[in-house]
Each structure stands twice: as structure tokens, then as C-alpha cells.
Amino acid sequence: MSNILNVILAILIAITVVFYFYLKTKQFRSTLPIRKNWYASRSGVALGGLLIFFGINQIIMYHTILTYVISTVLILFGLFTAVNYNKRVRHYGQFVEEEYNLNKK
Question: pTM for the full model?
Fold first, then answer.
């Protein structure tokens, strides 16, 4: 059971890394300021997910007190990051289409 969960978490870690870099690339290539902030916020949610999955993976792999303490800090920081950036995504998401329509040529 532990091996299956470890593989699933490794896949989720890889997916969040790919999403993070994809969204960061979209952020740098975007010319509209609100869209840039929206992509930056979405990449922050992916980064929070990465921290959460990595912390859970470490708890499953290693059973020491130090691992539990560091993984708990990672998971809590990942939750804080994901929730904070998710609020930003919802805020900027309201204005993305409006900004696009205003800047159409």
C-alpha cells in the first residue's frame, strides 16, 4: 500500500512541477498586466500543491521525528500558499476577460 501511495504522490509532484513551469512561462509571455498576475497566482497554487504533496510523500517514506516536523512545516506552508494564491486567482479571474476585451485590436 505504501508503494502505491508513493508512486501516486510522485506522479502528483511531477504534475504540479509541470503546471508550475507552464504557468510561469505563460506569465512571462503575457503582455496584459492582470493576466500576468492571474497566471502568477495560478502558478502559486501549483507551488502550494507541490509543497503539500512533497511533505506527505516525505512522511510516508521516512519515519523520523525530524521528518515529521519538517514535513508538517512544508504542508502547512503549502496549504497557506495554495489558499492565499487561490483567493488571488478568483480575484484576478473576474477581470481577465474584461481586460482582454478592452485591449482587443
Answer: 0.89
